[in-house]
Write a structure and sequence with these properties.
It is built from 9 helices and no strands. By secondary structure, the protein is mostly helical. α7 packs across α9.
């Protein structure tokens, strides 16, 4: 077999193996395009094989960044009490584009829902502690300010700690 033919067969077989690995990874959990690309690259596949596998998975509908982001936000909101900024940063770390991340988080965590969670977390706590707690959990400044104002207006702030 001539070297060109052998190189072509090796390249095509790598693409087949990359697609198989991509399917295997996606069968266990949803991934963003960036994350799947990173995982395939870490397993030694060439950039060309990674692009091919990721493209094929998207073409087949197995890989969709927006659907991934929406599912991730729903899961996080059901399992953790965190704010808009934390969710947004989490999506960015998973390779979701900024505009899409902002859109998905705003739809999944509108200000009124964020405020309700912030109220629950801040009930009976000192204002300084509320600020630290809500900031650490990624709540927006306007949500924190509103909760503090509500506490001040209703006299619900807890004792100084």
């Amino acid at each position: 077999m001539d070297p060109q033919r052998l190189a072509d067969l090796l390249s095509r077989s790598e693409m087949v193996f990359a697609r198989a690995r991509a399917l295997s990874l996606l069968s266990r959990a949803a991934h963003s395009t960036w994350d799947l690309s990173r995982k395939l690259g870490a397993r030694g596949f060439s950039a060309e094989a990674v692009r091919d596998a990721v493209g094929r998975m998207a073409e087949l509908g197995y890989l969709d960044d927006k659907a991934f982001a929406e599912g991730w936000v729903r899961f996080r909101l059901s399992t953790r009490k965190e704010g808009w900024k934390s969710l947004y940063r989490g999506l960015l770390r998973r390779g979701i584009p900024r505009a899409m991340a902002a859109e998905v988080v705003e739809a999944g965590c509108p200000l009124e829902e964020e405020l309700e969670v912030a109220r629950q977390l801040s009930a009976g706590k000192d204002p300084k502690r509320v600020i630290r707690l809500l900031s650490a959990r990624g709540f927006r400044s306007k949500a924190i300010a509103r909760v503090l104002k509500e506490q001040r207006d209703t006299g619900r702030a807890g004792p100084e700690e």
